[in-house]
Amino acid sequence: MQRRGLATLSIKEVVTRFSPNDFNAIDPDDLHIAPAQFIEKPVEIPNMRCIYAVDCVRCIALPPAMITIVFAKAIVPAAQRKALKNDCTVIRSMAQSPACQRNIRMVPTGYSETSLNAFAKRVVVTARTIEVLPTWRRKH
User: Fold this and answer.
1) Given a cut of 60, is residue 137 above it in pLDDT?
2) Distance between CA 102 and CA 91 in Å, rounded?
3) What is the Cα–Cα distance from 90 to 94, expressed in whole angstroms?
4) Quick one: how many helices (H) and strands (E) in the chain?
5) pLDDT digits over 38-79, tens only?
6) Other residues' Cβ atoms within 10 Å of the Cβ of residue 111
7) Is-contact 42 25, C-beta < 8 A?
8) CB 65 within 8 A of CB 32
9) Which DSSP symbol is given to 40?
10) Could you tell me which residues come within 8 angstroms of residue 29 by beta carbon, excluding any fewer than 6 positions away?
11) Given its phi and psi angles, is residue 73 left (phi above 0), alpha (psi -120 to 50 degrees) or beta?
12) Residues 6 or more apart from 2 whose CB is under 8 A from it?
């Protein structure tokens, strides 16, 4: 059997043990306050600003949210990866363009915290793959 990289797999192949209904919708600040609570659990996070880099994708919760960064080497589906690659490769577009604001799904695998000062910290959450949803979905 030929092995393929994560970037070429479909979301169905990557997240086989979770269905779309398994993803718990959380606020980026929930992830910031208690990242350990979400490790290895499927979560959906709205309103993240995503930037495509050569080796990864980073999605960031911008103010007024707390500083929370999601980092993954792979992003699915391919159409969303292509859209981010075309429109969201510089900080300015990531921060200002509506094209870079997305809901994401992921299963966090780890995290780190860095104290910025006595009152603030930065949380970096890692995931194997981020699924970028094509549009923002309102949950009633």
Assistant:
1) no
2) 15
3) 6
4) 4, 6
5) 999 999 999 899 999 887 888 888 666 678 899 999 999 999
6) 21
7) no
8) yes
9) T
10) 61, 65, 66, 68
11) alpha
12) none
